[in-house]
Amino acid sequence: MNLIQKSAIDFTAPAVLSDGKINDKFCFSEYVKGKCAVLFFYPLNFTFVCPTEIISFNNKINDFAKRDTEVLGVSVDSKFSHHQWRKTSPHDGGIGKISYTLISDITKSISKEYGVLHDESFALRATFIIDDKFVVRHQSINDLPLGRNIEEYIRIIDAIKHNEEFSEVCPAGWRKGKQAMQASDEGVADYLNSHSEEL
């Protein structure tokens, strides 16, 4: 299911906020209004790859904040399971007091609407980057054993913001501060003339 260039799908659901409080009527669009957002789905609490991803997002939360970007995790677990997992130390297989919101998709409706529900049971490792106009600009799905690279989402957010500010496109491997290019025959020729061996 392709959501690229479409409005993100809004929802209201129970969530555990960054301060550990539970909001039974957490509204996605209201929370991220005017900001970018990384909405990531993961299979289940108290599993194996999932806590590494959640902690990795948390370790880079300041990098997202500097880019005016909210990070939100979603699984089919209950709000109580989220709450308990936050109370469990990483040394004991938990995630600790992470600094962003975890959403409870216990009805599985959010995972289904985003097209990432696996076998009618749980969500795959799906990631959606949504811009400040609530439009989906990136989506990706990993198979269950494959953990995500959180740095890549930071790079993509930088590319989105660069494109919006300078109307330039961002070539393969582009990072903030590197040369981008004009979306024209001349632009690509100029870029490849000096960068093709680096690609």
UniProtKB/TrEMBL annotation:
InterPro entries: AhpC/TSA, Peroxiredoxin, Peroxiredoxin_AhpC-typ, Peroxiredoxin_C, Thioredoxin-like_sf, Thioredoxin_domain. The keyword Nucleotide-binding does not apply. The active site is at residue 50. Coiled coil: none annotated. It comes from the Bacteria. One of its GO terms (biological process) is hydrogen peroxide catabolic process. GO terms for cellular component: cytosol. GO terms for molecular function: thioredoxin peroxidase activity. Gene3D superfamilies: Glutaredoxin. Keywords: Cytoplasm, Disulfide bond, Oxidoreductase, Peroxidase, Redox-active center. Residues 2-162 form the Thioredoxin domain. It is found in: Cytoplasm. The keyword Disulfide bond applies. Thiol-specific peroxidase that catalyzes the reduction of hydrogen peroxide and organic hydroperoxides to water and alcohols, respectively. Plays a role in cell protection against oxidative stress by detoxifying peroxides. Belongs to the peroxiredoxin family. AhpC/Prx1 subfamily. This is Thioredoxin peroxidase. It comes from Wolbachia pipientis. The lineage of its organism: Bacteria, Pseudomonadati, Pseudomonadota, Alphaproteobacteria, Rickettsiales.
